[in-house]
Amino acid sequence: MDIVIFFFSGTGNTWWVASELKKALEQRDHTVDMVSLENESIKDSEAVAARIERADCILIGYPVYGSDLPDNMMSLVKNLPACENKIFGAFCTQAAFSGDASSFFQQELTAKGYDFRFSFQFNITTNFNVAMLPFSLSKPAAGKKLAKIKNKALKKINRAADMITAQDRHLAGTSILMAVPGRIQRYFFRKNKSKLLRNFQFLAERCTGCGLCERYCPTGSISFDADHSDLTRRDDCLLCFRCYNFCPVKAINFGKKKVSNPEKYQRYKGPEENIKIGDLTQ
Question: Is the pTM of this model over 0.90?
Fold first, then answer.
């Protein structure tokens, strides 16, 4: 099959799963393209539609935020062109639980003519260790613990590749035990997202003015004024926490109260050593 994977990855987990899934599918003699939602080509709607038309199977991959899709992935889903029986699948990455986040939009795509055949959920690790309960209690996995999580995920990725190859229907997150808590969590996440955005903090005294946060924000919502050492953030932030995790001096923080000790909170630099943000955007 000719397969295209459209993905978004804030700090590397979804990029890693998409990359490993691509390898596994290619080993099964499929042709696979990976396209980041941050790639310039995604802005050309005609080119995207043409790539979808050529493909036998469309896959999307994304991290889960509050049992929901990131806004940029939801926009892609809503703007996918109508088709006739095109095979479709979705996979998400999560710290532990995402309810129905890999499938709640199935009806919308079925109405457009897609054969929603696959949805998978991969547990990796949190990227969210911040000065706010309960998130201050969980830290990103590292070392042997992260290696163990990745090895378990690799087995699941290979099973997913087998199912895609066989075109066996597999829909994770569709049972009532997954769907109900997913819907509840998604409702409160959407309701409170704007409040969460107000918890980002900029510590100007730590900032070196490198501009990395502005340069690599996936929605361009960050503006940095080097002359006045000031940072502003629009309300279209995805809450991907890329800026928080990759700031080299921990000048971006998160919490309801002023963070007095940024060193206390662990930053997640992705599931691979020496990962580059540019890898996530190609």
Answer: yes
3 forms bridges with which residues in the sheet? 32, 57
Q: How much is the pLDDT for 228?
A: 61
DSSP state of 39: S
Q: State the DSSP H helix or E strand holding residue 165, giving kind and residue range, or none if neither.
A: helix 143-166
Residue 123: closest CA among 14, 11, 208? 14
Radius of gyration of the chain (CA): 19
> DSSP string covering 219-277, please?
T--EEEETTTTEEEE-TT-----HHHHH-TT--EEEBSS--S-GGGSPPP--SSTT--H
At 206, which amino acid appears? R
Whole-angstrom distance, CA of residue 238 vs CA of residue 226: 23
| Residue 252 amino acid letter | I
pLDDT more than 70, % of the chain:
99
Query: How far does Cα 165 stand from its chain's mean position?
Result: 24
